[in-house]
What we know:
By secondary structure, the protein is mainly α. The protein has one domain (7-147): Ferritin, core subunit, four-helix bundle (Ferritin). It has helices spanning 7-34, 42-65, 78-91, 93-114, 120-147. Helix 1 packs antiparallel against helix 2 (42-65), helix 1 (7-34) packs parallel to helix 3 (78-91) and helix 3 (78-91) runs antiparallel to helix 4 (93-114).
Amino acid sequence: MAFARSTKDTIDHLNSFLRGELSAVESYQLALDHLSPSSPARTSLETCMQSHSARVDTITDMIRRLGGEPADGAGAWGAFTKAVEGTASALGDKAAIAALEQGEDHGLNDYVSDVNKLDADARELVVSTLLPQQEETHRTMSTLKKNLR
Length: 149
């Protein structure tokens, strides 16, 4: 039996997704800043960053439509961003790609595990838009990681 979700709970979960997406944008930007300009991974990383940035806008709009206040930073997700930065600087492209793929794994798991905690409209947004986009960026990073071995 499905239960109606409260607007506050939905906004809280959407803000969690938003913080993850903000962290992803920051992580990709940091990785790109440290990536060799001639790296074959650059285009894939830019495409994934743009996808996450579009999701930030989509989630922000939904939170506002529900009367909520969108998160303005990555919050606890910032630690992951710092890990990507350190990995990219110290260990190079392959390690940075592996860290980004790990972040994609986490984002995918968040959407899948929390989708049923949302109200019907937000759930539809996740299922029809956000989750397919997350699956695509996850697939891109997984493929890139395998190809860089």
